[in-house]
């Protein structure tokens, strides 16, 4: 039986978009982002777009732009074409049956389905996700140029422009004492005008974290993201129990609702960084958030440095979440030299404003998709 929402066709492509400056993380430096963009067409004539971005190919976790494209073209699209788009849980189940794991790839497809269905109904996506409770969220910026002077310049400018007053520093690439010195210099330079957080991206072992995190707290850091390896739940647990003056946030460790449940049971984090890609879509992001809320764990609106498409989709699901939140970091569009939407989400008084139009409230520029298409640019994997 053909419904109003039958999926007619799906197409995916990799874009390559340079960043405005090198972005340095514990595992390497990136100078371009390579989001995979999915477009889905329904038989009713509606179309929707989805996105999944990784950072540094497959160096943030197992998935890469190339693996995402492959999974979509060879397994996920064939499992869904001819099926019903509006039964999102059903679509997720079909994708799970066709393909284990591959959360990023599934998230891009689910995002496109939600966009297409919401556009058919002329509703913003948040209406299909439980209704919004936030119209805006405080927006962090990441200082990751690797250079103190440049970081401070960026921070001062963004404070002046009233764009950001939460700054996250990416550490873990250098010796821990050098990271402490770098963070302390930034903290002194900002003289209490900003909230400071760090993301170690799994770089430290438990003993290094127990030794150096108190020094970062002393310097003024209040939120510490993924200080130890993804598997090191014991260290996350001991830090959560003993570190005074700052909160421990899980990122790479919390992907599935089962990961969330395990961390809640182990009391191994104060906050979860939520990311649509690693949870496998908007619906599953809500499931992870539900575990957080039930366990009195806070949430943070994380990013994989998506364009305005993935960032707007993330903003829609984050806008529906109750419980304690610590703002968001959907600043990807600002780190890229250009975007794929006609109009970016506004930032007012240090907060990202939810775009309220149909779907995710952003209009894709087909010309920009063409311009950054990897196949057209003749580029290869990172
Ligand atoms: C991460 O691990 O959180 C988010 C912001 C940023 O600068 O890098 C990412 C990845
Ligand atoms: Mg992180």
Question: What's the SSE blueprint?
Answer:
Layout: E1 7-14, E2 17-25, E3 28-33, E4 36-42, E5 47-52, H1 65-80, H2 88-98, H3 103-120, H4 125-128, E6 136-138, E7 141-143, H5 148-160, E8 166-170, H6 176-190, E9 195-199, H7 206-219, E10 221-225, H8 233-242, E11 247-250, H9 257-266, E12 271-274, H10 276-279, H11 282-294, E13 298-301, H12 308-318, E14 325-328, H13 332-335, E15 347-348, E16 351-353, H14 366-372, H15 374-377
Parallel strand pairs: 7-8, 8-9, 9-10, 10-11, 11-12, 12-13, 13-14
Antiparallel strand pairs: 1-4, 2-3, 4-5, 6-16, 15-16
Helix pairs in contact: 1-2, 1-3, 2-3, 5-6, 6-7, 7-8, 9-11, 11-12
The site of [(2S)-5-oxo-2,5-dihydrofuran-2-yl]acetic acid has 11 residues, from loops.
Key terms for this structure?
alpha/beta; binds magnesium ion; three-stranded antiparallel beta sheet; 20% strand; TIM Barrel; Enolase-like, domain 1; binds [(2S)-5-oxo-2,5-dihydrofuran-2-yl]acetic acid; 382 residues
């Amino acid at each position: 039986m053909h419904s109003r929402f039958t999926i007619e066709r799906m197409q995916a492509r990799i874009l390559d978009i340079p960043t405005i400056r090198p972005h340095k993380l514990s595992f390497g430096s990136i100078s371009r982002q390579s989001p995979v963009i999915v477009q889905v067409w329904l038989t009713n004539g509606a179309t929707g777009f989805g996105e999944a971005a990784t950072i540094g190919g497959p160096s943030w976790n197992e998935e890469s732009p190339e693996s995402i494209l492959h999974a979509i073209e060879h397994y996920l699209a064939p499992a869904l074409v001819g099926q019903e788009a509006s039964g999102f849980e059903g679509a997720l189940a079909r994708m799970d049956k066709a393909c284990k794991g591959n959360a990023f790839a599934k998230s891009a497809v689910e995002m496109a389905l939600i966009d297409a269905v919401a556009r058919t109904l002329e509703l913003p996506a948040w209406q299909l996700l439980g209704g919004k409770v936030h119209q805006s969220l405080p927006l962090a910026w990441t200082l990751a140029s690797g250079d103190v002077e440049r970081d401070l310049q960026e921070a001062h400018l963004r404070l002046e422009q009233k764009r950001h007053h939460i700054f996250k520093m990416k550490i873990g690439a250098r010796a821990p004492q050098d990271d402490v010195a770098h963070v302390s210099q930034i903290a002194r330079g900002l003289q209490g005008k900003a909230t400071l957080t760090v993301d170690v991206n799994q770089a430290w072992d438990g003993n290094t974290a127990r030794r150096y995190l108190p020094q970062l707290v002393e310097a003024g850091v209040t939120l510490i993201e993924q200080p130890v390896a993804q598997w090191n739940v014991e260290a996350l647990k001991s830090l959560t129990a003993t570190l005074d003056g700052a909160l421990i946030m899980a990122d790479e460790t919390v992907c599935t609702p089962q990961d969330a449940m395990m961390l809640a049971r182990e009391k191994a984090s104060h906050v979860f960084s939520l990311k649509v890609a690693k949870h496998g879509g908007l619906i599953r992001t809500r499931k992870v958030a539900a575990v957080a809320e039930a366990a009195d764990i806070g949430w943070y609106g994380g990013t994989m440095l998506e364009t305005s498409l993935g960032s707007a989709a993330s903003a829609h699901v984050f806008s529906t979440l109750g419980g304690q939140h610590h703002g968001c970091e959907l600043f990807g569009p600002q780190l890229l030299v250009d975007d794929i939407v006609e109009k970016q989400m506004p930032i007012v008084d240090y907060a990202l404003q939810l775009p309220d139009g149909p779907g995710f409230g952003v209009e894709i520029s087909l010309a920009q998709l063409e311009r950054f298409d990897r196949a057209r640019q003749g580029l290869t994997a990172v």
